[in-house]
Amino acid sequence: MTIDKIRNFCIIAHIDHGKSTLADRMLELTGTVQKRDMKSQLLDSMDLEREKGITIKLAPVRMVYKGYDLNLIDTPGHVDFSYEVSRSLQACEGAILVVDASQGIQAQTLANVYLAMNADLKIIPVLNKIDLPAADVTRVSAEIINLLGCDESDILKISAKTGMGVTEVLDAVIERIGPPMGDENAPSRALIFDSYYDDYRGVILYTRMVDGSIKKGDVIEMMATNANGIALEVGVLQPTMKPGIDLATGEIGYIVTNLRTTRDARVGDTVTTRRSHTDSQLPGYKLVKPFVYAGFFPVSNDDYSDLKDAIEKLSLSDSALQFEPENSPVLGFGVRIGFLGLLHMDIIRERLEREYDLDLIVTNPSTDYHVSLANGEFLDIKSASDLPDASRIKEIAEPWIKGEIVVPKNYIGSVLQLIINKRGIQNNLSYIDERALISFEAPLANLLTDFYDQLKSITSGYGSFNYELDDYRVEDLVRVDFYVAGNIVDSLSVMAHRSEAQDLGRRIVDKLKEVIPRQNFQVALQAAIGGKFIARADLSAYRKDVTGYLYGGDVSRKKKLLAKQAKGKKRMKRFGKVDIPSEAFTVMLKRD
Question: How far is CA 148 from the centre of its chain?
């Protein structure tokens, strides 16, 4: 196929606006997939994606339409997976922006549009779900015109579910998006936009050929990692793998290599060949840095090696996953894993439990902190229990984010109040037709647990939220420790701002009282900063009536038995051990 007959594009949208459904209709209309093989969300290959109705991994596919090769990349819509979107955009010349006609422009729509504009892509606005009774085509069209500065005639109005207007979208891709730029005779250069590990075949790269070509059997080199390998097979995805002779300039396809780990073939790296070598690297991506950390511990310590193996396998296909071993006196051996957000953490937990049949205890999620010590040393801690003694600390800096919330006008007051409650600072308030766009800054730690839930509940589900990491700021932070029956439980320790520590301590102690079962002796649950206790709740003991079998007689017999029991309970309190259930370690995630 000549380069002027190739079109590379991706679909971007807010979560649940119909990207995967539009991709399904395109595959049907172009005959890429037979009717009998068709199923909804065809490109979402994971069971979890199908169950939750969301896209987690990007998925490339080639369609042939009117003599053109159309290379489509379906992208995720949730903020936690925006790094997948930015990678897809680098491999394309155009993007289809899908907006739900009933919901209008949301926070992630804006974020993805800015990403596409920065990548200098041609954007085709598409209004989806116009067949719904709640669709407000006029209002949402005005929002799109306001955002993109396009004409009314540029907006394609479709229903991806019924297939209405989808052929016009395919025609617009051919007419409006330009062919890829590249030199067929230049040395080979290909951009890796995704890679994963196959147990039977090794590392498989999804690449976009920028210059030259890569043939089957070529010796290939990764320019950033200097790893060498062989292109055992090259081809395109339709949507299953279809082997070919080579990948030519401008094409998107896959390369099966003999590499044994995806760390040799990092996403964003440039692939070149030995026969047609280049020294100029393509502008790659910035390395993805996780900013949510949680400890994963097996319920039984015998399963620790299985957990470690499972995480290593998962990290081969998820470049954002970072982990290190962790040891807790209460929970034993485990692993501290870094994530891109709470949904990412949830997905990984479910995959570990399902695919590898593991029973896990997950500790409260936290972020990382930059600690400057009095002796000039600098630490980056990922868990509150790693914080050194307070006398050695000079200052602690925590990560802040820049956030955007899109919400209907009548909810502005309650959203601003929520931001203030989270120690946030409102920067700007602007209007997109009937909606308000609130820009703010806030400490990441305060938004980790239930900010999104609270936003959804106070805005009746209409509020949408997008954020990016900003910088680290020095704050008055303290470590809040928790004691169960006089013993410190380091896995429960959290970092908090001094002004919020007492309230947080009291809240968590009350939640622990609900989840820790009662014992035969009284158990004290306490929160402390350093050596000072700031909150306490008592779990009362089970009372067993030891005098129940007495049938009368002198009252002193009763008193004697009760005194004996009191002594026994005292002794039990000294030697008794409280069994802490796994729910206690995720009390921060539980809503009241």
Answer: 28
